[in-house]
Design brief:
The chain has helices spanning about 5-35, 35-65, 85-110, 115-145, 150-160. The protein has about 170 residues and is mainly α. The structure holds MU-OXO-diiron. MU-OXO-diiron binds near residues 17, 50, 53, 94 and 130.
């Protein structure tokens, strides 16, 4: 028997992960419009990963016979007035998602829902990686982004990122 609060939070996380995909697509569009196709690629791959996260929450709920309710997606809201502000929004968003995952973990822990805690372990590790990546993006841009040649090389580097399915299989 699943706790009602944990179930609600799991279901809400699906929307947050799809929203993350939507937000990163907006970032990718920003960079496509600016001609920075490497950055656009990086955020497009990021969006694909977020869709995978949403699908993992759906699968986990369904594996446990919990009904999934898909809610409306909000319009992506972020300060996209400059390249750096977009990149910084990425870190702020990941910190928001980390707090959200932690809140589900805390609720699961409170009712001794060890199964959900174990499921979330992967996401806790993943969030640490996501925050590290986002911080690295800011550092790299601050170091090299102001210089045209530096930005060219940075963009080329980010264009190398390829999509890989998540290591967690349910
Ligand atoms: Fe699915 Fe980037 O958090």
């Amino acid at each position: 028997m699943f706790d009602a609060k944990v179930t609600k939070l799991l279901n809400e996380q699906i929307n947050k992960e799809f929203y993350s995909a939507y937000l990163y697509l907006a970032f990718a569009n920003h960079f496509t419009d600016a001609g920075l196709i490497g950055y656009a690629n990086w955020y497009t791959v990021q969006a694909q990963e977020e869709r995978d996260h949403a699908m993992l929450f759906i699968k986990y709920m369904q594996n446990n016979d919990l009904p999934v309710t898909l809610e409306a997606l909000a319009k992506p809201e972020a300060d996209m007035s400059s390249h750096l502000s977009v990149i910084k929004e990425g870190l702020a968003h990941e910190q928001f998602v980390t707090a959200s995952i932690n809140a589900i973990y805390e609720a699961a822990q409170g009712v001794k829902d060890f199964r959900t805690m174990q499921f979330l372990d992967w996401f806790i590790k993943e969030q640490a990686e996501e925050e590290t990546n986002a911080t690295e993006q800011i550092r790299k841009y601050e170091l090299f982004g102001a210089d045209a040649q530096g930005l060219f090389l940075l963009d080329k580097d980010l264009g190398m990122r390829t999509y890989a399915p998540p290591s967690l299989v349910l």
